[in-house]
Write a structure and sequence with these properties.
homodimer; about 350 residues; alpha/beta; Quinone Oxidoreductase, Chain A, domain 1; Rossmann fold; 2 domains; seven-stranded mixed sheet; six-stranded parallel sheet; 10 helices; about 25% strand
Chain lengths: ~350, ~350
């Protein structure tokens, strides 16, 4: 591999999609290359990536199954949100040295015409937070929980991937609403963190066999809101415990993303619908920027206030080294990360 | 059988639940008996049933599976809504000869303390309408479609059991909202009725093999609202055609009520959830009187106005003879009825 290990001012390192994975992605599904840095035209800016966000939805973009967004083409750069610095500007709204959030992809350099950039100023304090607690995962947690889930004080809220980017925020926001919060996570260390640091009332380890029994014991008054970002056996444990009028915001199904075929029967589709009917449950999928992008300011103000007051704890799992990106992403899909996964692609100033 | 064929002033005919059906109910699951007429105490009224409503939800009450309502006990009277006349009153709010809607059950005579009675006056014009277009099925159609489904002009609305009590109203209300309406019904005669008389844009016959292909052809712009009261293969045909942001009010699953076990695999539970996620769909179960009973007046005014203006067509399938009740109910579960199923239990005046 001739791709430079560090970010340079002369080459554009890129992670390309080499092949569509069948099941779990492997390193060979990606190609790490270096090309020339693109040249911005009039009305465009050249962006240099400092932090890249890795998120479960990217698995969907690697497949060509019909989805809400176009798949990444073979040999195209993998998509993703990033925190970038404006290196060159031919756009009147942006000046060099300014930081922005951009959908820049898995690469050192990208060109933008200025649409869909979020300004972070010249000297942002914690710029990578714009990819997590103050960005897409934060908005997902906030809107999915509050707008679709509508938790009431005293109700029981359950969330999977409890120490992940979204789940950790869902649980903490639910605590701020006065709810009882039960998390589900993989491993004792994460569970302890959810309770001790994030303040969840309980957190169960889904790697143990008796998840359904334990969840029933902890949720002794049933479940009013299940924030669904996992699916699979976590949902199976939740389903029988849902109360009448329960709400299920549905933002992800990470346990299913690597599945190559449907599970064996029986076919529980009618069982699920029967439960939704009998218990008068609302289940609603959402794609955060499509459905709630227009409410970003409202979210951002609330979250910044909570952060300033110390009411929200935020944990980043920061990978140093852009060459680690594919491995880190593969690990994300099996829960190897602990906190919001972010790749440090380059230095603050090159 | 010594039970009188006609309603009398001396005996109370009753349909009891004899045994819990496994699969489709049979006549032997019911017992048609005659007992003494109950005596109302102070503060109570004696009601005589004139019309009895037969509705799919009653199948659920015959089972002891956990549901939103208690099952009917073995040897208890089958439950159901009815239009009744007050025969004796020891209650200051009710006088003899007054008509009411009551949850009187499958019997000639019942006693009420006056709670949950809906007054219809002394000389109602079409009293049986209070069991259909102006009653529970009407409220179900109106609230499920408008409050959960929120159809917009130009959108495509699909409804199963298209000539049934609920489906026929869903489609007509959707037409009044400016929607394209596609019904699904069993048999050519019902489909023709849905288009010619109810004004649906199209109606497909689910007894034909090519339902999925035909539905895809008719719904050439996809489906925005699917009002779910059927389930099974109708839902299977609808699922791939649902548009982004589709809404699925879920009020019934009549095709599943007689099922004794889940269908063979694969297990499509995750497939359904994946579709809800990717397409940002809302699916919401509701039980009409629990969720919308407080909005009955709003519904009633709108529906009476539509009826008066001739904008809503309402078809009753009236069974003459209380002794036919169980057979008629069994037929309802397989779509033998054509319109809202009502039993004439007794004469207007005895």
């Amino acid at each position: 591999m001739t791709t430079p290990v560090s970010q340079t001012a002369t080459k554009n390192r890129q992670w390309l999609l080499a092949s569509r994975p069948v099941g779990a992605p492997t390193i060979s599904d990606f190609n790490f290359v270096a090309t020339d840095i693109p040249t911005p035209k009039e009305g465009e800016v050249l962006l240099r990536t400092v932090y890249l966000s890795l998120d479960p939805y990217m698995r969907g973009r690697m497949s060509d199954a019909k989805s809400y967004a176009e798949p990444v083409a073979i040999n195209d750069v993998m998509v993703g949100g990033a925190v970038c610095v404006v290196e060159k500007s031919h756009h009147s709204d942006y000046s060099e040295g300014e930081w922005v959030v951009a959908f820049a992809g898995w690469q050192d350099y990208s060109v933008s015409d200025g649409t869909n950039l979020l300004k972070l100023g010249k000297n942002p304090t914690m710029p990578s937070y714009a990819l997590g607690v103050l960005g897409m995962p934060g908005l997902t947690a906030y809107m999915g929980l509050l707008d679709i889930g509508q938790p009431q004080a005293g109700e029981t809220v359950v969330v999977g991937a409890a120490t992940g980017a979204v789940g950790s925020l869902v649980g903490q926001i639910a605590k701020l609403q006065g709810c009882k919060v039960v998390g589900i996570a993989g491993g004792a260390e994460k569970c302890e963190f959810a309770v001790q640091t994030l303040g969840f009332d309980a957190c169960l380890d889904h790697t143990r066999d008796d998840l359904a029994a334990q969840l029933a014991q902890v949720c002794d008054a049933g479940i009013n809101v299940y924030f669904e970002n996992v699916g699979g056996k976590v949902f199976d444990a939740v389903l029988p415990l849902l109360n009448s009028k329960a709400r299920i915001p549905l933002c992800g199904l990470i346990s299913q993303y690597n599945a190559t075929q449907l599970p064996d029967g029986p076919d529980r589709l009618s069982l699920l619908m029967g439960n939704l009917l009998i218990k008068r449950i609302k289940m609603q999928g959402f794609i955060v920027f499509d459905d709630y992008g227009h409410r970003y300011q409202e979210f951002s103000q609330a979250m910044q206030a909570w952060l300033a007051e110390g009411k929200i704890h935020y944990r980043e799992d920061r990978v140093e080294g852009f060459e680690q990106t594919a491995a880190a992403f593969i690990g994300l899909l099996t829960g190897q990360n602990f906190g919001k996964l972010v790749v440090r692609v380059g230095p603050d100033a090159l």
